[in-house]
Amino acid sequence: MGISQKIYLWMIGLSVFFVMQDGTLLYVLLPIIQTDLQIEMSHTIWIMNGYILPFALLMPLVGVLSQRIANQRLFFLGILLFSFGSLCGALSPSFIYLLIARIIQGIGSSIIVPISLVLMLNQSEKEDYTKVIGIWGALSALAASAGPILGGIIGQFGHWKVIFFVNLIVFLIILICSISMQKHSDSELLGTLDFKVVLKRSILLFTMLLNFGVGFILNSILYVEPFILSNFIDSTFGIAIGVVPLCISIILAAVLIRRLEKRFSLLNLAIAGVVFLLCGLLFIILSASFNILAIALANLFVGLGLGLIIISSTSQAMIEMEIKYHCFVSSMINMSRLLGAVIGSTISSQVYNHFALSDVKHGANTFYTSLLLPATVIMLILIYQAYWQRKNKSFNNIQEEM
């Protein structure tokens, strides 16, 4: 691999890092933004949802467009849109302008995330897909864990608009590098999609449902926990410390999968992830202690469980499909997780707000208890997937051919 190609891959990784970081960095700053812009808590969720909704809903379109437009050109367009959205965010004087900026960023992200995974997989052999997806997942988790830390530091010592200025500078650099290195990308067009093949012969539907559940739980915690911790901690950096273990343990999950995938099936590793997830939730519920130490410890187990589910299920779906379907499959999986994120954070914020009116601890306990339902549904989906894989001969034949 030449130096130029390595730089090209580093630019892809850097773009994923900043897009994913932008998705979590603002969570710990929402209470500050709420005060600064003089808006209600119910409005702050749209600072995140305004980003996540276009991010999620446009991904299937990106998957279809990738069959007709070279991946690198789409990637370039995504970088351009995210850069413009960052500029608008940096200059936004009010909530409405900030919301528009977040929508533009979300549109750019809907292109960057699925295309980035495909561009990385195109540089790899099929037997290395789990490793590549693990690296991609770990990079995303590292960015997500860095987000709350940086957000806490910025909230403590600077202004929240600094985030958008940093994004603008970084993505302008990536933009310049993308223009100069287009020749190193795979510009082959792969024709039309056979949707029947994708849906009938694959586990894509299972993977989408699992990622929807993961997104529901992950973003519910990322959104509600800063508000829970703000009742006990004055420092935004302290709030970040409580949330960060959730994302760091997802990196640990990527390492574990890489070491254990030859001894255990990816499906079994995903089931183990649900066990860790349930243990983390039950710990915080039964302890009824919502200090920073208890929440951080629970988040370690929850994050490890979510990481095992995300990486295992995504790897299995990508290994199964031909390369021409990768962008579409990646788009659908990421869309499902982000839709779960929007719905989860919206519902969970309402649950917490309703029960926290009388008592904050009661609201927090009810919030974590409510997450047991999607966690249980994830387990049931995995059990049915195991049954389906044993009965479905076409799936087993595909696996044997690999």
From TrEMBL:
Pfam families with a match to the protein in the record: MFS_1
Domain Major facilitator superfamily (MFS) profile: 8-393
Gene Ontology CC entries for this record: plasma membrane
SUPFAM superfamilies tied to this protein: MFS general substrate transporter
Membrane-crossing residue ranges in chain numbering: 7-33, 45-65, 74-97, 103-121, 133-154, 160-181, 202-224, 236-257, 264-286, 292-311, 323-347, 367-387
Protein topology in the membrane: Multi-pass membrane protein
Keyword Manganese applies: no
Main subcellular location of this protein, as a coarse class: membrane
Protein's cellular compartments: Cell membrane
Molecular function (Gene Ontology), one example: transmembrane transporter activity
Source superkingdom: Bacteria
Swiss-Prot/TrEMBL keywords: Membrane, Transmembrane, Transmembrane helix, Transport
PANTHER family, alphabetized: MAJOR FACILITATOR SUPERFAMILY MULTIDRUG TRANSPORTER MFSC
Protein name, UniProt field: Major facilitator superfamily (MFS) profile domain-containing protein
Species of provenance: Metabacillus litoralis
